[in-house]
Automatic annotation (TrEMBL), chain A:
<keyword id="KW-1133">Transmembrane helix</keyword>
<dbReference type="Pfam" id="PF12911">
    <property type="entry name" value="OppC_N"/>
</dbReference>
<dbReference type="InterPro" id="IPR000515">
    <property type="entry name" value="MetI-like"/>
</dbReference>
<feature type="transmembrane region" description="Helical">
    <location>
        <begin position="107"/>
        <end position="131"/>
    </location>
</feature>
<keyword id="KW-0813">Transport</keyword>
<feature type="transmembrane region" description="Helical">
    <location>
        <begin position="138"/>
        <end position="159"/>
    </location>
</feature>
<dbReference type="InterPro" id="IPR035906">
    <property type="entry name" value="MetI-like_sf"/>
</dbReference>
<dbReference type="GO" id="GO:0022857">
    <property type="term" value="F:transmembrane transporter activity"/>
</dbReference>
<feature type="transmembrane region" description="Helical">
    <location>
        <begin position="207"/>
        <end position="226"/>
    </location>
</feature>
UniProtKB/TrEMBL annotation, chain B:
<keyword id="KW-0067">ATP-binding</keyword>
<dbReference type="GO" id="GO:0005886">
    <property type="term" value="C:plasma membrane"/>
</dbReference>
<dbReference type="InterPro" id="IPR003439">
    <property type="entry name" value="ABC_transporter-like_ATP-bd"/>
</dbReference>
<dbReference type="InterPro" id="IPR003593">
    <property type="entry name" value="AAA+_ATPase"/>
</dbReference>
<keyword id="KW-1278">Translocase</keyword>
<dbReference type="Pfam" id="PF00005">
    <property type="entry name" value="ABC_tran"/>
</dbReference>
<keyword id="KW-1003">Cell membrane</keyword>
<dbReference type="GO" id="GO:0016887">
    <property type="term" value="F:ATP hydrolysis activity"/>
</dbReference>
<dbReference type="InterPro" id="IPR050388">
    <property type="entry name" value="ABC_Ni/Peptide_Import"/>
</dbReference>
Length: 309, 370
């Protein structure tokens, strides 16, 4: 490697300055601090899952261990801190390993949607005309059908499995991004610097991906962060309806589904089986809340009109 | 020798209000090495004409008729008949453009130096590669000395982690070239300015960057579209000096668009006066100022504010180009309009060597309009 290349000190690199700026903004607002802490907690939980809730040797770690076959749930005890739900599945184990499932569903679902959405929106916005009309009518069609119902239809058509749930979420989630990106591209493509790039002899793909997209993509990332929560929520709903993860798979929606028969408790004591729905419910609630708060924080941080130094 | 020849050029914009006849039968020759000033009011089609010269009229506009020929070393390129990807190779490298608002012509998310580098990497990659080969060592040298068709080169160029062996020496050479260009533009401390973002620079500095981008590939023709309109007067003078200076240094042919007669007098050798999509008068700068022939040119010159002389404006305003007036486009505002002016459109005719006028006061050649 030629030694003439000057190394920029870390403190002056773009990403470093950006990171410092981001941390400063997060520190300034209590809500984004809470959101960040919640998500950090979940990340920690996911990373440390094998230590917090050790899987049984030789078994798939996502398979929740069960301690008997009695349908009636058993209350929390020192061995099972969250109790055992219907069919004696361990709630604590399920909640901890369910975090990994939630992240997987969220990240894969959102990044898949983003990829499709950005591509479709960028092409539609940049080239316009007939292509725009066709792509945007497809978007309208997907929007016309309620998301959950469409996702259900996709899962049933593809076959029941968690992977297919993720694919269904991608296929349902992309139109939002497509519209956002298209709007951004339409706004940016009339700017002078795009014309200047054209006058410089840039090709269409270069203009679109190097000059237009970086200027119109911020809002999309904010929505994507907010969507992390709602994707997990939809996946949970699918599991609750019985077409998500297979029985016994560590997934929060699945655990809620197992508590369905015990929501009303026993006559005289409506909260007899409170632990069956409360614990997984709290996990889902906190996860979605965390992403929403973080999304709000990102909206402030990524706002390009803010002064950066 | 003419570098650019436009013949019978028509540009139409298809809008909801109707078809805008933005350029209506323009003939224009640009002589190699000269500075051609194009002057006219806002909406007279100055910018659109020069967009047409690069065959990049922005949609919904279209060149509906006519030819644009670009000549280089005896080779003729008919820009209006070439495929887009062929013209793209000429844009930036042969025909460059400076924009009116430098703040808007720079992409806010990239460092200014990288934006200049982009232009160089598009058109002068081979040259940069050759230079990089001279300074590169080790594996980089090995890779750079191979032919582009070599499978190893193709692989290394694209492979993450390995691609830097190919690109880093080239980028370093490009960076040096950009720094050289920036200092040529009179930018102090070009190394530091290289890594600044557009919003950190003043208008004058931004315009220098834009000019650096335009001149980075040593174009034969430079089109400057009101490059000083948005600048302070003192900065305007500096930029004008710079453009004149660089034109000499690079041997570029310059097309300078403005509505300011003072600037025209300062920079240009020849002047084309445009009105409502037509060229009404062409001549060398001295004779145009000394002895304007077309009533519109006269009006323009009389409307320059001067001490000791009352400002005289041209009554009325530029016509709507969806429905331009019949006959001569200028006749409703013309003091010396005759009956023929409202029925026939005067042709641009050479009345004296080097002097072309489209007015029935000087000749009787006209066209019936459809």
């Amino acid at each position: 490697m030629s030694s003439s290349i000057k190394r920029v000190p870390i403190r002056e690199r773009f990403w470093y300055k950006e990171l410092v700026f981001m941390l400063k903004r997060i520190r300034e607002s209590p809500l984004s601090l809470i959101g960040t802490s919640i998500i950090l907690f979940f990340i920690l939980l996911a990373v440390l899952a094998p230590y917090i809730a050790p899987p049984r040797p030789g078994r798939d770690p996502f398979e929740i261990p069960r301690f008997g076959y009695v349908p009636t749930p058993s209350p929390p005890s020192p061995e099972h801190p969250f109790g055992l739900t219907e069919g004696q599945y361990d709630l604590f184990y399920g909640c901890v390993w369910g975090t990994i499932t939630a992240f997987r569903v969220g990240f894969l679902g959102v990044s898949g949607s983003l990829l499709i959405g950005i591509l479709v929106g960028a092409l539609a916005g940049y080239f316009g005309g007939l292509l725009d009309d066709i792509l945007m009518r497809i978007v309208d069609i997907v929007f016309a059908i309620p998301g959950l119902i469409l996702a259900m239809a996709f899962v049933i058509a593809l076959g029941q499995s968690l992977d297919n749930v993720i694919i269904a979420l991608m296929l349902v989630g992309w139109p939002t991004y497509a519209r956002l990106v298209r709007a951004g591209v339409l706004q940016v493509k009339v700017e002078d610097y795009v014309e200047a790039a054209r006058a410089m002899g840039c090709s269409h793909s270069r203009i679109l991906f190097k000059h237009i997209l970086p200027n119109s993509i911020f809002s999309v990332f904010i929505v994507a962060t907010l969507d992390m929560g709602s994707m997990v929520l939809t996946a949970s709903a699918l599991s609750f309806l019985g077409i998500g993860a297979p029985l016994g798979y560590a997934d929060w929606g699945q655990l809620i589904a197992l508590s369905r028969n015990w929501l009303l408790g026993v006559p005289g004591d409506p909260f007899a089986y409170w632990y069956t729905y409360t614990y997984p419910g709290i996990f889902i609630f906190m996860f979605v809340l965390g992403w929403n708060l973080l999304g709000d924080a990102f909206r402030d941080i990524l706002d390009p009109t803010l002064r950066r130094r | 020798m003419n570098v650019i020849e436009a013949r019978d050029l028509y540009v139409r914009f298809y809008t909801y209000e109707g078809v805008v006849k933005a350029v209506d039968g323009v003939d224009l020759d640009v002589v190699s090495g000269e500075t051609l000033g194009i002057v006219g009011e806002t909406g007279s089609g100055k910018s659109v004409t020069t967009y047409a010269l690069m065959n990049m009229v922005p949609p919904p506009g279209k060149i509906t008729r006519g030819r644009v020929i670009y000549r280089k070393k005896g080779v003729e390129y008919v820009l209006t008949e070439m495929p887009e990807n062929e013209i793209r190779k000429l844009r930036g490298s042969e025909l460059a453009r400076i924009f009116q608002d430098p703040a808007a012509a720079l992409n806010p998310v990239y460092k200014v130096g990288d934006q200049v580098a982009e232009a160089i990497l598009i058109h002068r990659l081979d040259e940069m590669k050759k230079r990089a080969l001279e300074s590169a060592k080790g594996f980089s040298r090995n890779i750079l000395s191979r032919s582009e068709d070599d499978w190893l080169v193709k692989f290394v160029k694209r492979m993450p982690l390995l691609r830097r062996f190919y690109w880093d020496p080239i980028k370093e050479e490009t960076r040096k070239e950009v720094v050289r260009l920036l200092s040529l533009m009179g930018i102090p401390d070009p190394e530091r300015v290289y890594s600044m973002y557009p919003h950190e620079l003043s208008g004058g500095m931004q315009q220098r960057i834009v000019i650096a981008m335009a001149l980075s590939c040593n174009p034969q023709v430079l089109i400057a579209d009101e490059p000083t309109t948005n600048l302070d007067v003192t900065v305007e003078a500096q930029i004008l000096e710079l453009i004149k200076d660089l034109k000499e240094k690079f041997g570029t042919t310059l097309i300078y668009i403005t509505h300011d007669m003072g600037v025209i007098a300062e920079v240009s050798d020849r002047v084309a006066v445009m009105y409502a999509g037509n060229i009404v008068e062409i001549g060398d700068v001295y004779s145009i100022f000394k002895e304007p022939m077309h009533p519109y040119t006269k009006g323009l010159l009389e409307s320059i504010p001067m001490p000791g002389r009352p400002i005289k404006d041209i009554p009325g305003s530029v016509p709507n180009l969806v429905n331009p007036p019949q006959g001569c486009r200028f006749h409703p505002r013309c003091e010396r309009a005759m009956s023929i002016c409202s029925t026939r459109k005067p042709k641009l005719v050479q009345v004296r060597p080097g002097r072309w006028v489209a007015c029935f006061l000087y000749h009787s050649e006209g066209v019936e309009e459809e």
